[in-house]
Design goal:
The chain is an alpha+beta fold. The chain folds into five domains: about 190 residues, Triger factor/SurA peptide-binding fold (Orthogonal Bundle); about 100 residues, Chitinase A, domain 3; about 100 residues, Roll (Chitinase A, domain 3), CATH 3.10.50; about 90 residues, no CATH class; about 90 residues, Chitinase A, domain 3, CATH 3.10.50. The protein is about 50% helix and about 15% strand. It contains 25 helices and 20 strands. Strands 14, 15, 16, 17 and 18 form a five-stranded antiparallel sheet that branches. A four-stranded antiparallel sheet has the order 4-3-6-5, with helices on both faces. The chain is flat and about 110 Å long. It starts with a helix and ends with a helix.
């Protein structure tokens, strides 16, 4: 899925302004008699002129080829009926929903919530809570009982009883039995909004008044507040954890040996390159991408990483679910600036309880924009039909609803009937609303119905209200089609067309070659004198075990050993390694001394198809795409009006 959005993001640079203008006066070209016009081409060219990096794309002849190619691909997608695909329709709808948020929110309220969220993001609160459960739609009597109960508990706290012990005794949060109600540290957007408000608005050491959330009533005690830890960069050396216990003991022994070498003054980066089994970071000296609290899947790793500093840069060996680690501090980054956080915060707000505040604000504006005048007589008739059976989810629609199909109210150009309202009432009873009496409930339901229809009408009418919204939707529609077409015609084909891939491989062998490789044993140490003794032992055909037993102890690791098959120039091979059989002399790189024993030499040779398949599939995709437009030109009839194109050239040059 991520690939699709990356592709669309790149494509929009070209597509974003490629919306056909059917009101142009001159036809530039046709595809199967469908016209494409000069003003669209000129507009696309001018707006993309500063975006393209390839100078050839600024050439008008070349640009026309690109533009025709793009239109051919969209035509092919429509011919295949990809626009009717259910997944395509779902994704298009999802994108519209996302895009519409820019037009269906109150920007002022949104900004206030972003400001508040960012201010809180700068802090992390450690809080405990006591919960008394009560459903958000509970009857008034049940709600009052829960409220009185939480008030009684708060009274006990204010009289000196320990909050933690009380949480164990009375809190209806199951985890309280173990953690005494302590929720640890959290920042904004980690809890439901009402709870967050209670936590951030309560002074340290104090207990809040009862806080109502959808779970029930809470008492919140703020234990401490600290600055947000931000992000950290660390390097690590990892030895993977095997499945069997005996091998796990060996992994632990290995990491301890490496730690001893660090204590002896050897460089972390070099040891990571030699021994870390995290292949994605080993070649970089073990350095990981920076991360914040909660971003990794190991809490133990994060705890160790954030505990380090310039003054205390290296951890002792520790275990996670993945293996054994030693971590080194590299750098720390504070919380991102307001501007850098803004988009992310807006996205979080849209998925949070805060969004209700924005929706309510917009609804008030829509009520002003579209004044509602209901048919009082019809409404009076409808309200009498709603009975107390509603509370038990037993209310049924009248047998004949046609008599209520008269217009109840109008929004813009759309009428809503009495039948529409009755259908809404019927579907609403499942929510279990307990508002009484029934007349008050019916009025509340009418207000909710109007609000829902105002927002829906506003959303449905965006294309008519905002031309730029309509344009972007058209652009995304074509872009999504083009992605699906390329997935079908290029990407999937390159993976499944085994015959074509094999034939392509035969033409590409010279580009996929192994250099000379060796099966080698490598010894390393920072102690040159001991390495000289190792070389003497190896020349006498003594074993690896004999070498390690002589020079390594439980407390002190002097000689490290590893073996494998390495390509000439590989980082794991000492730099001056000669590709010849047998023992090398001692070579030195930085503080390290190496001895290499080459057991076998594998000569340079073409890689098999399987050995280079990843790169080959990528090359095959590019090959197919380069020939794709030529194939489409055979399938579709393209006619370019050259006289008109010459006029376009003159117009652009002016």
């Amino acid at each position: 899925m991520k690939l699709k959005y990356i592709f669309l993001g790149l494509l929009m640079g070209f597509v974003v302004i490629a919306k056909a203008q059917t009101n142009s006066k001159e036809v530039l070209f046709t595809i199967n008699d469908k016209p494409f016009f000069t003003d669209e081409f000129i507009r696309v060219y001018n707006k993309n002129l500063d975006l393209v990096k390839d100078e050839s794309q600024k050439d008008l002849n070349q640009y026309l080829e690109l533009f025709v190619g793009y239109k051919l691909k969209v035509s092919k997608a429509n011919k295949l009926g990809l626009q009717n695909n259910a997944q395509y329709q779902t994704e298009l709808k999802s994108y519209r929903t996302q895009l519409s948020k820019n037009y269906t929110t109150d920007s002022k309220v949104t900004k206030e919530l972003v400001d508040e969220g960012y201010k809180r993001l700068l802090k992390e609160v450690n809080a405990s809570h006591i919960l008394i459960l009560v459903d958000e739609n509970a009857a008034p009597a049940d709600t009052l009982a829960a409220y009185n109960k939480i008030l009684g508990i708060r009274d006990r706290v204010t009289k000196g009883e320990d909050f933690g012990y009380l949480a164990q005794e009375v809190s209806q949060d199951p985890s309280a039995k173990e953690n005494k109600g302590n929720l640890g540290f959290f920042t904004s957007f980690k809890m439901v909004y009402a709870f967050e408000n209670g936590a951030f608005n309560t002074p340290v050491g104090s207990v809040s008044n009862p806080v109502r959330t959808r779970f029930g009533y809470h008492l919140i005690k703020v234990n401490s507040v600290r600055e947000n830890r931000g992000e950290v960069v660390v390097a690590h050396i990892m030895i993977l954890k095997p499945k069997d216990g005996e091998a796990d003991s060996k992994a632990k022994s290995t990491i301890e040996d490496i730690y001893k070498k660090l204590q002896q003054g050897e460089k972390f980066e070099e040891l990571a390159k030699q021994f870390s089994e995290d292949k994605s970071s080993a070649s970089k000296g073990g350095v990981l991408n920076r991360f914040a609290s909660g971003q990794l899947s190991s809490e133990e790793f994060e705890t160790q990483a954030f505990s380090l500093s310039k003054e205390n840069p290296t951890s002792k060996p520790f275990e996670t679910q993945f293996g054994w680690h030693i971590v080194k501090f590299m750098d720390r980054f504070p919380v991102k600036s307001y501007e850098d956080s803004k988009v992310e915060l807006e996205n979080k707000i849209s998925k949070d309880d805060r969004s209700r505040l924005i929706t309510n604000s917009l609804t008030e504006k829509l009520r002003v924009k579209y004044p509602i005048k209901r048919d009082a007589k019809l409404y009076s008739t409808l309200s009498k039909l709603v009975t107390n059976d509603f509370y038990d989810n037993k209310w049924v629609l009248p047998t004949d609803t046609k008599k209520y199909s008269k217009t109840l109210f109008t929004i813009g150009t759309k009428n809503f009937t009495g039948t529409d309202f009755l259908d809404y009432v019927y579907s609403s009873q499942k929510a279990g609303t307990s508002l009484k009496p029934i007349e008050k409930l019916t009025e509340s339901l009418f207000g909710s119905f109007v609000d829902a229809q105002l927002n829906q009408y506003n959303n449905d009418n965006l294309e008519n209200e905002f031309p730029e919204f309509s344009a972007v939707m058209d652009e995304y529609r074509d872009g999504l089609l083009l992605f699906d077409l390329m997935d079908k015609e290029i990407w999937q084909r390159s993976k499944t067309d085994t015959t074509g891939l094999k034939a392509f491989y035969e033409t590409q062998k010279d580009k996929h070659q192994w250099k000379t490789r060796v099966n080698a044993e490598i010894y390393s140490s920072t102690d040159l004198e001991k390495m000289k003794k190792v070389l003497t032992m190896l020349k006498k055909n003594q074993t690896v075990k004999e070498v390690k037993d002589k020079f390594n102890t439980k407390e002190n690791v002097t000689i490290m050993y590893y073996e494998g098959v390495y390509e000439e120039g590989a980082d794991a091979l000492p730099k001056e390694t000669k590709m010849t059989l047998g023992l090398s002399e001692i070579t030195t790189k930085g503080d390290y001394h190496f001895i290499t024993n080459i057991i076998k030499i594998l000569p340079a040779a073409p890689k098999t198809l399987e050995e280079c398949k990843g790169k080959l599939v990528n090359d095959y995709q590019q090959y197919l795409e380069q020939n794709w437009v030529s194939e489409l030109k055979k399938e579709f009839q393209v006619k370019v009006n050259q006289d008109t194109f010459e006029k376009v050239k003159m117009q652009i040059k002016k």
